[in-house]
Amino acid sequence: MSAVLDPHGHVAGHGHDDHHGAPHGWRRWVFATNHKDIGTLYLLFAFAMLMVGGVLALLIRAELFQPGLQVVNPELFNQLTTMHGLIMVFGAIMPAFVGFANWMIPLQIGASDMAFARMNNFSFWLMIPAATMLAGSFFMPGGAPAAGWTLYAPLTLQMGPSMDAGIFALHILGASSIMGSINIIVTILNMRAPGMTLMKMPMFVWTWLITAYLLIAVMPVLAGAITMTLTDRHFGTTFFNPAGGGDPVMYQHIFWFFGHPEVYIMILPAFGIVSHIVPAFARKKLFGYASMVYATASIAILSFIVWAHHMYATGMPVTGQLFFMYATMLISVPTGVKVFNWIATMWRGSMTFETPMLFAVGFIFVFTMGGFTGLICSMAPIDTQIQDTYYIVAHFHYVLVAGSLFAMFAGFYYWAPKWTGVMVNETRGKLHFWWTLISFNVTFFPMHFLGLAGMPRRYADYPMQFTDFNQIASIGAFAFGFAQVYFFLFIVLPAMQGKGEKAPQRPWEAAEGLEWEVPSPAPFHTFENPPKLNADATRIVA
Amino acid sequence: MNKLNRMLASSLLMLGTWLSTAAWAVNDLPGGPGVRQLNLPVGATKIAEEQAWLHWFMLIICTVIFIAVFGVMFYSILKHRKSLGYKPATFHESVKVEIAWTVVPFIIVILMALPATKVVVAQKDTSNADLTIKATGYQWKWGYDYIKGEGEGLGFISTLDNEQREISNSGAKGVSIDNYLLKVDNPLVVPVNKKVRIITTANDVIHAFAVPQLGVKQDAIPGFVRDTWFRAERTGDFYGQCQELCGKEHAYMPIHVKVLSAEDYSAWVAGEQKKLAAKQDDPSKVWTLDDIVKRGEKVYAANCVACHQTSGKAAGPIKALDGAAVVLDADKNKQIYVLLNGQGNGAMPAWKQLSDTDLAAVISYTKNNWSNKTGQLVQPADVKAARK
Known about the structure:
The structure holds 2 protein chains of 2 kinds. Chain A is mainly alpha-helical. Chain A is built from 16 helices and no strands.
């Protein structure tokens, strides 16, 4: 049953739900077709990868604690930065959001399951060999890929065989993402309960619908870029190899045509989660639902025309630089609208601050700081100074850690009662929040200063003037890492074991949506018959 | 109790020493990074100044917006609480408000874009440079070639000081070096108040030529050339580092730009050119016939073959060398004279820009090739003597 490890104790009351014969033991997970089980698998997988990527990050921070090489050599250092990026992006954040989608989309739209249940199983299990190959590349001759997570040519042409393993792993992860996206789109467009029109859909469903389209549009582009890298490496083509007339900058254009929408793939579902939590704890409807939908769509569309702001330093013509600068600055408008709407939702609400709300407010606050530094980075002349420095590292960790990761924590605390049937211990949750928030800022805020002072990123060693801020960042990083271990051992595990106060069907006073119309924990099968909905599609009637 | 006090005092002392060593007793590096530097450098070029100004401009606008927006949010968080008995309002949409907070940020963004546009256009204008230098990225060093302007023809490789690389490997324990990882053997030398255009390219993978205080960062891309420029407004040393991941020694290929006054720069160029000339060949070297003929064949192929042909017989108005009287003449000064001064009103140009060794070699070659078997050997010293 749901994410609870021992289903038997809870099945008794809902014997009816099990008449399809829910499988038990390992078969339940390997042959899983239930969206809730697959969602759980995705989330656990993503958390495991978060830990792997986190260990790599801590090795990096240990090395950078002081000038000189103490912990790793420069070759290994480059492997660590590369693999930290790849694992966090493709192994942790993206699968985690697919996990949320699997769990919540059918529940939120009143569908019995995902549209393609077996493909759903396949897209999860594809990730296991891919992740194994990716992480295992450390043990191949020459070590893991060390060309940065962006895999810029022609440095990729100098890599050892692990580069090929990395490319294949990304191919497989991409295939998995595309299948997951198709599944999500078909589910959302075809399986909504009668009465739930598109403009009554929960925001999380909306953001994922748009995200899934982005994924289908750009994952093949990445696949193309890395396939060309592969043929350059082995079959004598010279797409990106200048020795044969290829163009290394072309690789960057193709990569960032994928890479920039990818950034929004990792943040739009986070917007969706926060758009549920803020109204629930402000006891007030989401302000400007329609404008939230339009803002999300605008961000998605704009994300396709800003890619070259990652490439100001490659030397574009002046008109190119100006176009990408203007387009990038424009993105701050719809993003600002979203922040304003959240704050207007809070305004004159009746707020309480349980852990999900703390993380949601923390998200808005810290993500917006990342947004402002993004605006600063978008200015080409300033970017001339900070491109490829620690300022960039600070910026994208503010949006990806304080953005995506904080929103996922918020989502976990918000929906865990529905998943597990028990309430999460509030004291522990609050401790986790404050510990995470403070250590996050201790880690990444000093990096702004390092970047402005000119410390380049991906450096195993640095001039001694940069020492102090690096030490602060390293201390913060270890605190941040241990906070997540605490989260797993003292919050996630007890919840999965069903320890804690039993959760009512509606654990949050003012939370709206169909997921709160089913018991806690959500039974193995839900909405087997399409429910009849009220006028605004948030409640089941009769 | 006393003991406890003493322990406390000594541990405080230890903490103090740790904190002060934590600062590594390192000093600001003029032209390079400062200790705990918080903002962009002020810079030594107009562009760098404008970049720093733009950053302040953006920082202030963003901070004002940040305080306004989050002031509202935190006011709401403090006042609109259930625990204070606040009853929730029911409003949840307003087209007017939505339009307002779409249009106002849009206008702010346009206001931000205007000054930035000006700087972008200025940064990109690499025309009318006084001095053009090609910077080539190698794994893992920089090559500088003076292409055009004062110092044309100079070229050298700039590498990180090997001692510092060793210190890095051994953990940099207990040392504090102000220019750690920034010291090179041959800095890039440029004149002050002159527009210096840097053409970047690379030999292997992508590198990036970046010097924060000069306000430049330009990727160096193999197979392609890109350019950027700076006009340093004061003399001094300025430091940068490679800023595009280029393999394992990425952190160890610094850039050191030495800006000199016009006179010092001219003196430096003269010195370098002298060194360059001296380095090429020792003009007092005594060659054997075989060696000098081999060298001469190369010089001939590079300079003479277009007219005189491989056969040495030439064609049309060009005089043949094979069997020519002046070549076969026992007085080698006759041929040396022709090569140094030309002949026939420049139909045969003067070749005095070639080095003594090259001239001696090519003359020896022509005297001992084809049907010319004079056995005569011209030494560089002969050419040197003839130049006077």
